Amino acid sequence: MSEQNLPPALQPALYLVSTPIGNREDITLRALRVLRSARMIACEDTRTTGRLLELLQIPAPRLIAVHDHNERGAAERIAEHIRAGNIVAYCSDAGTPGISDPGFVLVREMIALGIPVVPIPGASAVITALVAAGAPCQPFTFVGFAPHKKGRKTFLDAVVQRSETVVMFESPFRIAKLVDELCQRCPERHVTIARELTKMYEEFIRGSVRGVQAMLASRPPLKGEMVVILHGGESAEQTDEAGERSNAGETEIL
């Protein structure tokens, strides 16, 4: 490879490294390069990131946990490390940092301290589920997890009033409840539940909210991480037709 085709040398900065959401082969070449070069890796859970590094056969550098209670203190330590000429990576437990973890606070602190921040694109459960749902993607809104108790009714009332596609996360312990609540508000709207994305038992459950509610009632409780896509811009006729054509299915990842 000629020198002009070589990737540029990594500069001291905070690198936001997207990690696999299930299948470890979804790590990018650029992410591997950064992780191998990092002198420090900040992460949600040092055990989870340590296991990933072991699977990727990358010697673990210094790992520090960044969570809701220590972002600012951790930011100062990370900034000092970068100012000393080191490369620091930040990883969430799975997927793109900052989507459903305290990474955005860390990024905000780095920007305020004048530290370069470099995003390393990669896996994201939001985008992975959205593009396979068959929902209109322009526009879409991501709303994260619905509140467990306080504010849940107001949150869901606002979600179903939106005309664009809405993407949210839900745990397997509350997925049936969420579908029931959506059925009370928009029974004929089209919905897709994506679970275990990129893993062996990846599954997409598609249909009207009412149809998916009946489907869930007739099978064992769902397991795994869930992404729920409430489709926008579709009529009840389109919903019924799409639900008949595409029922639940499993895809094995080799």
What can you tell me about this protein's structure?
With 254 residues, the protein is an alpha/beta fold. The protein folds into two domains: 3-120, Tetrapyrrole methylase, N-terminal domain (Cobalt-precorrin-4 Transmethylase, domain 1, 3-Layer(aba) Sandwich); 125-251, Tetrapyrrole methylase, C-terminal domain (Methyltransferase, Cobalt-precorrin-4 Transmethylase, Domain 2, 2-Layer Sandwich). Helices cover 36% and strands 21% of the residues. It has nine helices and eleven strands. It has helices at 29-37, 46-55, 71-83, 103-112, 125-133, 152-161, 175-185, 209-217, 236-245; strands spanning 14-17, 40-43, 62-65, 88-91, 117-120, 140-145, 165-170, 190-195, 202-208, 226-230, 249-251. A six-stranded mixed sheet has the order 6-7-10-8-9-11. Strands 3-2-4-1-5 form a five-stranded parallel sheet, with helices on both faces. The longest helix is centred in the N-terminal third of the chain and has 13 residues, at 71-83. The protein is elongated. Mean pLDDT is 89; it is low at 235-254.
